[in-house]
Amino acid sequence: MSLFHVIILAIIEGLTEFLPVSSTGHMVVASAMMGIGKDEFVKLFEIVIQLGAILSVVVLYFKRFFRSFDFYIKLVIAVIPAVIAGLLFKKHIDQLLESPLVVAYSFVIGGVILLFVDKWFNRPVVKEEKDISYLTGFKIGIFQCLAMIPGVSRSAASIVGGMSQKLSRKAAAEFSFFLAVPTMFGATLKDMYDFYKHGNMPAEELHQDIKYLIIGSIIAFIVALLAIRTFITFLERKGFRLFGVYRIVAGLFIIGLYYTGHLVL
To answer: Domains in the chain: how many in total?
Structure first.
């Protein structure tokens, strides 16, 4: 993995983390196209820089994170399903992360759902995070678990989950952002621990890995800061249909590359 790969993947992450198009899916495909898709460090890198992007939420919504203790209780309750699922299915998830074809099919299926989600859930009742109940938060957390399948999109799963519980598009999107912070923080620490515990790498290589993680996280953070506000505005005005179309086209394109031999898994 080179510095060029680091920059490209970090930009992709920053642009796509908050869109319902799957940042992980895009990075898996990009890694495969650049010939680094099955490298163990690449898989760690793709997790760690997601935390970099998600920390932009803390900066942009700083006051919300210190408004009430009840806010943290909701996040803890909502993240429980992902913690359980992660512990139970970690090995299976890691295997799926190596397959751009899994991403492609997830793109298409998720895209079809996004074409209709605005019509399915068009009568929101909850318009602010403070009105979300503990049970609703837990249900949204269950939806978030679907994002463990590469290409599903954590953002899409949790936002659609929120809308199914009568949250407005904006409220569902913002709660999805908030929920990402403890989810990705936990996933990052666990993956870094596992990687370096079993790595036994020379000090020089370890130093380069840490440097790449820092650079990638900073780039993803900056790009995400620029992208998140634009997404919220677009989502409120236009909804999910365009994202659905994009996912379907991207998924079919990846499938086409695979079956014509232009994308090697």
So the answer is: 1
Does residue 169 lie within any of the structural domains?
yes
First-to-last C-alpha distance (Å) of the chain: 17
Tell me which residue has tokens 């090697």.
264
CA angle 133/146/42 to nearest 5° reads 120
Non-local CB neighbours of 229 within 8 Å, separated by 6+ positions: 60
pLDDT in tens, 150-163: 888 888 899 999 99
DSSP assignment letter at 167: B
Contacts of 44 (CB under 8 A, 6+ apart): 191, 192, 195, 213
Give backbone dihedrals phi and psi of 167, rounded to 5 degrees, phi first: -85, 150
| 167 beta partners | 126
64 is in which domain, residue-wise?
3-259
**Quick check: is 166 in a domain?**
yes
Is position 265 within any domain?
Answer: no
Using DSSP, state whether 126 is helix, strand or coil.
strand
Give me the pLDDT at residue 23, please: 84
